[in-house]
Amino acid sequence: MGLLSTLKRFFAPTSPTISSAATGTDAVTAAGLEMAGAHWGKQARAQIEQIKPGSWAECPIVIAEYMNPLISGRAEVGWLEAVAREHFKSPVARALSLGCGGGGLERHGLQLKIATAFDAYDVSPDAVELAKSLAFDSGQSASINYAVANLNKLEFAAQQYGAVFASQSLHHIEALEHYFEQVQKTLLPDGLFIFNEFVGPNQFQWTEAQLYHANRLLAKVPEKLRQMIREPGVKHRIERPTVAYMNSYDPTEAIRSKEILPIVEKYFSIISRKDFGGTLLHLVLDNIAGNLSFSDEGLQLLREFFAEEQRLIASGEIENDFTVVVARNNAPDL
Predict the structure, then answer these.
(1) Chosen CATH of 17-329 out of 2.130.10.150, 3.40.50.150, 3.40.50.80, 2.60.120.10
(2) Burial status of residue 116 (CB atoms within 10 A of its CB: 0-12, 13-18, 19 or more)
(3) Angle CA(206)–CA(209)–CA(211) in degrees, nearest 5?
(4) Would you call 221 exposed, middle or buried from its count of C-beta atoms within 10 A (0-12, 13-18, 19+)?
(5) Coil, strand, or helix at residue 17?
(6) CA dist 12 to 8, 143, 150, 192, 293, Å?
């Protein structure tokens, strides 16, 4: 049930305050957030240790031949570099990263001169410790400030940041309205909110069209390439998980993912949106992606799947489940 989680910096920031009152709906309990934090802390470390790609977003062929061309137009230019080239001709003084995980965005962002420094927050103490360690190893720890926080309840001071980033973390937010209000508030008047996100069905309640076409593509993969990477066994079929299962696995997973784009437009003006599919590839390649990357047969199938997903999106039969958005602050000057 892997999901894209790809993809630190600062002088001392203003410490955010945590609201004692719940914001938005309260389906995700404190115990659920602790469960999610522990899960994604383990995932952050597993990504460092993993050799064979287990998901579409970790597969170099998928990234170079599918994702990057859709986002940047060039195989060798990833999403963050594309954003840096287009929107950051000079670094902002301070940027904010929400849901930082292992800290890859912040470290890369400093290298790309997106910002002089970053503040970064994540619900997982383990992920934050890993991010601190990796920032120290890369010699960037003086430019990144890390802290553990519940992003559903964080409150920020006004007009603190030239840019706010979220990479595969926004779909874990239940209190979207509060979150967007705080991002809008803490951005400078001309600041940018940039996110790389899953915006598909809430809690992975896949559409009938998704399931039909994903299973049709999976059936084309020979059994030897359907041996699962994360655990023993063969991948036979893609199913829609029950909501009960999702709540037991990670109650924050895609909790309001389908609502992200409609709600964000109430707070920000979208100036760039680069959709990059994933509607079928995310499902088909989960737990087997690496198997298809190292043989002519597997590469041929991958390229066939790339074309088929884009054909179905163009026809309107399925929608894009992943996107990179650059949005400008709509808040009036304070």
Answers:
(1) 3.40.50.150
(2) middle
(3) 55
(4) buried
(5) strand
(6) 12, 9, 19, 21, 43
Please tell me whether residue 137 adopts helix, strand or coil conformation: helix
Which residue bears the tokens 């709600």? Answer: 263
Q: Are strands 322-329 and 187-198 parallel, antiparallel or unpaired?
A: antiparallel
- 284-330 per-position pLDDT tens digit: 999 999 999 989 999 999 999 999 999 999 999 999 999 999 999 98
Q: Confirm if 4 and 278 have CB atoms less than 8 A apart.
A: yes
Q: What is the pLDDT of residue 262?
A: 97
Q: What is the pLDDT of residues 121-170, one digit of tens each?
A: 999 999 999 999 999 999 999 999 999 999 999 999 999 999 999 999 99
Would you put residue 134 in left (φ > 0), alpha (ψ -120 to 50) or beta? alpha
